[in-house]
Amino acid sequence: MPELPEVETVASQLGKLITGSEIVSAELLRARLAPHNPPEEFSKLLTGTMVRKVHRRGKHILIDLDRGHTLIVHLRMSGRFMLLDEEADEPRFTHSRFLLGNGKKLLFQDQRHFGFMHIVRTDALHSAKEIARLAPEPFSEEFSPEYLRRTAARSTRMIKEFLLDQTKVCGVGNIYASESLFIAGISPKRKANKISRPKAVLLHSVIMDVLSETIEIGRGMPIIPENIGGSIYGDLDTAWRVYGREGEPCLNCKRPLRRIVQAGRSTFYCVSCQR
Question: Which pTM value belongs to this model?
């Protein structure tokens, strides 16, 4: 599932491609993609609007429109945007179509059918269910070392599971939680409320560095309209320090890295370096 840096890349590239564009027509081709907006309402609210801004909150892409509505999009496992010529063939699993005033069409494709869209009023965006429960943004003043320490101190879950909770730490998903814990030298099995103040401060710094590092990689990626934001994945596959490297030598101590399952997700770590 795309995490904060990947979603940031998609939102940035999408914004460069469609900001200022008129949506001539909008079609919801799979009703369950937008369960709160039936197909007729989906089309009515979006048709004839202009895209004012594309940005992000957590792992959600936010498309602000000029008539006071925002389209919330979550890519989930396999969702992606594609900008094609109006006459171009459409791939299988195209779940929504937006015809733009410049003769292009924006498609949302989702092979695994987990993607999500919701149109809400922009002035009520922060009270929308998908947004209201999210923790502070990692790059905001609210997400401070003290916030992380204080919030972790109230949780008895293992620190890796704690980091995956978007109501506690926003945008840090499975990959970046594993990477951050490795760099900070913290066992993913340690309980969150057992993290010392110095370690919490270090973990906060590492999270910020890891997210920033990957966002910078995304900013250097070329924009491919047929696969918006998709070019970042190939460059990252070989960049991980521990993620996906079960059995391979630790970069620090050369001992084989291990994989365990936490909250249904794979965790990769070094038993020697992460105590």
Answer: 0.94
